[in-house]
Write a structure and sequence with these properties.
The complex is a heterodimer. Chain A has 22 helices and seven strands. Chain A has helices spanning 2-19, 30-47, 49-54, 62-74, 82-98, 101-113, 119-131, 135-141, 143-153, 160-167, 178-185, 198-208, 212-219, 225-230, 242-251, 254-259, 261-276, 305-320, 348-357, 377-389, 429-436, 445-468; strands at 286-290, 326-330, 362-366, 396-401, 404-405, 410-411, 420-422. By secondary structure, chain A is mainly alpha-helical. In chain A, helix 19 (348-357) packs parallel to helix 20. Chain B is α+β, with helices and mostly antiparallel strands. In chain B, the strands form three sheets. In chain B, strands 1, 2, 3, 9, 10, 12, 13, 14 and 15 form a nine-stranded antiparallel beta sheet that branches. Classes of the chains: A mainly alpha, B alpha+beta. At the A-B interface, helix 19 and helix 20 of A face helix 9 of B.
């Protein structure tokens, strides 16, 4: 019994760590989300510390990865022996290498504010800083972050020039390093702007009064991929990850979506094929029930995120299913995935019935779990289906939920018999479906631990190879 | 016409958030020929009424009813509005071809021309009447309630003060809460998922019907849905929301025992049955008091084939829900527009008392007999209803003393 409870707790944590970002959701405020998430973190950290650390190897989102690292470093004394500490350290190091630098700098700042300055923390921060490819760029782009981190760990930069740039800014007339020198010159020379990173140059451009259009035109080569998307420049859609692409598509007005139909659909399909990788075409007959009700509009800070996940899943499942054996069913009844919009109620129950009628091998439900027309019908349909019509489990049903339910400390489930997994990026669908199988309540903690150990091993191996390359 | 007729509106499953239950009403097809728009005021309004009284309240918005008849699918083009002005003018005269246009004859509720009026014909720049009517939602109904026996005593009994005899029961005041101050209502309305074709909403707080709102066209409902949060809600609604806990969702239950369900078709039929069962249960149990009470309707305006009414409940004692409100009906008496306000227990009591007083020609002694109670008790009730200032204290005291002595 306790084994099952433990397995449930761990899966609950994984679901929370995949979906929750501490931001406002459609049905709960940012404060509620953060409060709820903090409890889940603390609960799992205290009770299942090794699993808590192992979560770093899973596809949890950046917000939670940073939280896990912070919590682990804050409570270093609870880790147990040196062996466990080393294992944690390796996981933290590997995960930090994957996080975007602004988030890592923010994490370091949080550690500093919390007064966490044990030897292990200092070593980890120093190791991460040593892997940064261009300290001068970091010094310009993440100036205060880098400064705070160096101060905190009593670190020293390899080159004296960057050190002076940060800590003794007036001491040199000019810098040998072109980035640092561009920063110096950008104060009075407009041309130097365009040698700086976009975010830094933006401030200088405002100070020099450079017209926005001119500035964007000239800075374009220095922009990152996401910055290009954000400023609505013709980004290269063929390299965008699936969910980002779906979000971009949904941000376009309907007219433009229709005009660029071929291009957008092509890009979405290509991204889905890339995400599917070796699994493409291997899932047999697949039916998806996709939620495009009003609640999939997300919140002001997560605009249309649940809908974008559903759209991403639609294309990914199309790639995963055997050719021609995929049926998408949107809750609104629409049949054009490119023109979806978050509108209307969530008649999940009837849609699931439609889905079951197609006789699929797999039924995937992507929804926030608020089934309201009529409420609770989806759960009843799935229960009766499982107990009366399909007891031998010919069809596997899985529910993917992009929204963390702050009140329930988990993603909202449709029925106890249907495994539910949190999802943030549609790309992780295959891995999440694998985890969701543990949630049927029939596998024990030992199997789950074995699965986690395998994931940790793969993760560390990949990180080492990445480090060497 | 004594009842509210919601023919053509189907109930859909409710959506629950905390103590608030929202029941959507869906039309298979919109009411042809009538549209509603919103006109934002967002301020305190002083409404001049035709009988030279003034109604003062916070008026967040007005509605514009448009019976251009150009079709229910699009907003009227200016040309179309002018074209049908003649049509509208004729009808504004009050049916039966009395001629003379709606301009001179003030319909029942249309007040004199000053800042605001409860319901007013819109005119274009040249002063020609358009077939559009602006009215103040809910305030029209509330004014009807406030003006209940506003004229005061019809007979000069000496227990009533001279003020009451001369000027009527003026001033009368009622307090209400704005929607955003009712706990949980804002959030519930924000996350509500509007159904396709939805034309109305029944709003329950702690499972007591707080308000009903119906519009003629789904495209009108969507922009008007947020106005529910600016509407007035009675004291009762606020208290229920404040003290009431979360209400349970009526979740679907499919009985699958003993070979009930063998195929997917059975399962689908059972699912459909769930929806039907809810609609029956709702109309029969939850909305019964609204739909089965007989109201006193008073026509406020006649707009083409549509009639704008306001209604008052029978002010019955005994715990039944009592709503005031206004509605627009088409020729067959079906509801095109409806907005109600739930009276609190005190307001019902006051209405009841005024009705009985008026029935007994404002004679306190006879009223006491009619109510089966004592003179002193009637005086107490008049005072607790906030009408104590209209009594002549000296005469009342004298009567009370006489009663005691005898």
């Amino acid at each position: 019994m306790s084994e099952l409870v433990a397995a449930e707790d761990v899966l609950l944590f994984v679901n929370a760590a995949v979906t929750a970002t501490g931001q406002r959701e459609f049905r709960s405020s940012a404060a509620e989300q953060r409060f709820s998430l903090r409890f889940v973190h603390e609960y799992v950290r205290v009770n299942y510390r090794p699993v808590y650390a192992a979560a770093l190897a899973l596809d949890i989102n950046h917000h939670n990865a940073a939280l896990v690292v912070e919590q682990l470093l804050r409570t270093a004394d609870e880790a147990g022996g040196p062996e466990e500490k080393r294992a944690e350290g390796r996981l933290i190091g590997a995960r930090l290498a994957m996080l975007p630098p602004p988030r890592v700098y923010r994490l370091f700042r949080v550690l500093r504010a919390a007064g966490v300055n044990n030897r292990r923390t200092r070593a980890i921060v120093r190791a991460w800083l040593a892997t940064r490819p261009d300290p001068a760029l970091d010094a310009v782009k993440y100036r205060s972050g880098l400064k705070a981190a160096l101060r905190h760990v009593h670190g020293r930069l390899p080159d004296a020039e960057t050190g002076d740039f940060l800590f003794a800014p007036g001491s040199r007339v000019r810098y040998e390093n072109p980035t640092l020198d561009a920063f110096r010159r950008a104060r009075y020379e407009q041309g130097a702007l365009y040698e700086l990173p976009f975010t830094v140059a933006e401030g200088f451009a405002a100070r020099h009064g450079v017209p926005r259009a001119v500035f964007l035109e000239r800075i374009a080569p220095r922009m990152t991929r996401l910055e290009q998307l954000r400023t609505e420049r013709a980004a290269d859609l063929s390299v965008m990850p699936l969910t980002r692409l779906a979000l971009y598509v949904l941000s376009l007005p309907f007219g433009e979506r229709v005009e660029r139909r071929a291009e957008l659909t092509g890009a979405l399909r290509a991204a889905a094929r890339r995400a599917a990788g070796p699994y493409a075409g291997s899932w047999g007959r697949v039916t998806a029930v996709l939620d495009d009700s009003f609640s999939s509009s997300g919140s002001a800070v997560k605009r249309r995120r649940p809908l974008a996940v559903a759209l991403g899943c639609h294309h990914l499942l199309e790639a995963l299913a055997a050719p021609g054996a995929y049926t998408p069913l949107w809750t609104s009844g629409g049949d054009d995935p490119l023109l979806v919009r978050p509108y209307g109620p969530t008649p999940l129950g009837l849609r699931i019935l439609d889905g079951l009628e197609t006789g699929p091998d797999r039924l995937v439900i992507v929804s926030d779990g608020w089934d309201n027309a009529p409420p609770g019908l989806a759960g009843e349909v799935l229960r009766v289906w499982r107990s009366r019509l399909d007891p031998e489990r010919r069809t596997s049903v899985v529910h993917l939920n992009p929204v963390y339910d702050a009140q329930g400390f988990d993603v909202r489930r449709l029925a106890p018999s249907v495994p539910a997994a949190g999802i943030r990026d549609a790309e992780d669908l295959a891995a999440l479906v694998e985890i969701a199988q543990f949630a049927e309540g029939r596998t024990g903690f030992a199997e789950l631990r074995a699965y986690l150990d395998r994931r940790v091993e793969l993760f560390l191996k990949a990180a080492e190879e990445g480090g060497r390359a | 016409m004594t009842r509210i007729d919601l023919t053509g509106l189907d109930v859909r499953p409710a959506q629950v958030w905390g103590g608030v239950r929202l029941v959507p009403l869906v039309r298979a097809e919109p009411v042809p020929g009538l549209r509603l728009h919103r006109k934002v005021y967002g301020g305190l309004g002083a409404v001049d009424l035709p009988d030279r009284t003034t109604y003062t309240s916070y008026v967040p918005h007005g509605f514009v009813a448009d019976w251009t008849g150009a079709g229910s699918d699009s907003a009227p083009v200016p040309g179309a509005g002018r074209e049908s002005a003649a049509y509208g003018t004729r009808l504004g005269g009050g049916g039966g071809g009395r001629g003379n246009g709606g301009r001179d004859e003030a319909p029942d509720c249309v007040p004199v021309r000053r800042i605001h009026r409860m319901a007013k014909r819109r005119r274009d720049k040249d002063g020609r009447a358009e077939s559009r009517l602006r009215f103040l939602p809910l305030h029209l109904a509330l004014e009807g309630y406030l003006a209940l026996h506003f004229g005061g005593p019809s007979t000069v009994w000496d227990e009533w003060s001279r003020e009451a005899v001369r000027h009527g029961l003026s001033p009368r005041a009622e307090a209400a809460y704005a929607g955003w101050s009712v706990p949980g209502l804002t959030e519930a309305l924000r996350i509500f998922e509007v159904h396709p074709g939805q034309c109305g909403l029944l709003l329950y707080v702690a499972d007591a019907l707080a308000a009903a709102f119906v519009v003629p066209h789904p495209d009108d409902y969507r922009p008007l849905h947020p106005t529910l949060v600016e509407d007035l809600y009675g004291e009762l609604v606020h208290q229920y929301a404040y003290y009431g806990g979360p209400v349970p969702e009526f979740t679907a239950r499919i009985r699958d025992g003993a070979g009930g369900i063998r195929t997917l078709a059975d399962l689908r039929a059972a699912a459909r049955e769930q929806e039907r069962a809810w609609a029956v249960a709702h109309d029969g149990i939850m909305a019964r008091d609204l739909l089965e009470t007989s109201y006193a309707f008073e026509r406020a305006y006649r707009a083409g084939p549509f009639d704008l009414y306001r209604f008052l409940p029978p002010f019955e004692r005994g715990g039944r829900e009592q709503h005031i409100g206004e509605l627009i009906t088409d020729r067959k008496g079906r509801t095109a527009y409806l907005k109600t306000f739930r009276l609190s227990e005190n307001q019902i009591r006051k209405g009841y008392l005024l009705r009985r007083l008026a029935d007994c020609e404002w004679h306190l002694g006879r009223t006491a007999e009619a109510l089966g109670t004592s003179y002193a008790e009637v005086v107490r009730r008049v005072r607790s209803a906030g009408l104590g200032t209209f009594l002549n204290e000296h005469s009342v005291a004298q009567r009370l003393r006489e009663n005691q002595e005898s």
